[in-house]
Amino acid sequence: MGRFLKVLLGIIVLITGVWYFLIKDEHYQITFSSKQPPGVIYNHIMGWNKYATRDIDSVSIKSLNPYAEIEQEVHIGDSLFSYRWEFEKNASGNTEVSVGIKDLNNGIVQKLQAPFSSNDFVKRSIKSVKDVGSELNILTKKFKVHSIKDTLIVGDFCAYIPLESNANMKARTMLYNITTIMGYINENEITLKGDPFLEVTNWNRETNTIKYNFCFPIEKKENLPYSSEIKFKTTESFKGLKAEFNGNYSISNNAWFYLMDYANSNGLNVKKEPVEFYLDDPHIGGDPILWKALILLPLED
Asked: Which of 30, 63, 238, 264 has the smallest CB count inside 10 Å?
């Protein structure tokens, strides 16, 4: 019996060794949980290069599966590391984030050292993930998303400019173009009838680029003066999910992920064509957390 247990233990050790050295990909793994939807965390990590600490030279994306997985390469001096981030909702409704980290220059050394010692690679890995998490906490204090419910939006006549940009750059792109559309409206003494809004017509979630219309509801009348840049149309009425957003409109796309997460949790089919109504004028200034927008995702018919 004792000999059998020794043989069994030897087989287990052998299998574990083969799995660890030949099959297991990462050299170190870190997990943490967040109350934010997977999309918010995914979008935040996609922008790691923008807020990386000074010791990090660059972060490049090697592969991705939107809102589920990102693989990045991180350059620090002469060293090169791989970070594979995976996002999954857990039973409590939070997002479980798993980070598999590899030292691409010293793989064998880290396989031998990382499980048994807190070497420089392990310390750096923990610090990098903590830094990303700290920046996420800073971001999420800058906005609020709440009061998600069904709604009906009635179509309206509007003047608009078709635009295209990265989703994270939509506010800056609209700001750059607002003088064009407001100049046309003011010069032709056209009456505004409601709050400006954005309607996304196409969202490439792999590149996070969007095509969208920047719209201003106006009084409908015949023979509006021609403009090569300004278009006109009556928007369609639709049923959708609506959330209230408070914060700078440059980060209002985080509310899209709250609505997508709500739809997934409640078995609802939504079109990935967000609409945003801006109820406050950023030009007036003030604390952005007091700015309000209504964010919507149309329900599938």
From this structure: 63
- pLDDT, one tens digit per residue, over 133-159 is 999 999 999 999 999 999 999 999 999
Name the 3-class secondary structure at 27: coil
Side-chain-side CA neighbours of residue 87 (13 Å) = 25
In this structure, are 108 and 208 located in the same domain?
no
DSSP letters for 249-261: GGGTTHHHHHHHH
Distance spanning both ends of the chain, measured CA to CA: 67
Which tens digits make up the pLDDT trace of 24-37? 568 899 999 999 99
| Pair (175, 196) in one structural domain | yes
* Positions in the chain whose pLDDT score sits under 70: 1-25, 107-109, 112-116
CATH number at residue 74: 3.30.530.20
The DSSP secondary-structure symbol of 267 reads: T
- Position 222 scores a pLDDT of 83
CATH of residue 292: 3.20.80.10
Determine the Cα–Cα distance for residues 230 and 186; give it in Å rounded to an integer: 13
Q: Which domain holds residue 126?
A: 24-141
pLDDT of 116: 61
Residue ending a domain, among 92, 124, 141, is 141
CA dihedral sign of residues 186, 191, 197, 201: negative
Find out whether 271 and 286 touch, Cβ atoms under 8 Å.
no
Residues 184 and 11: their CA atoms lie apart, in Å, by: 78
Can you give the pLDDT at residue 23? 42
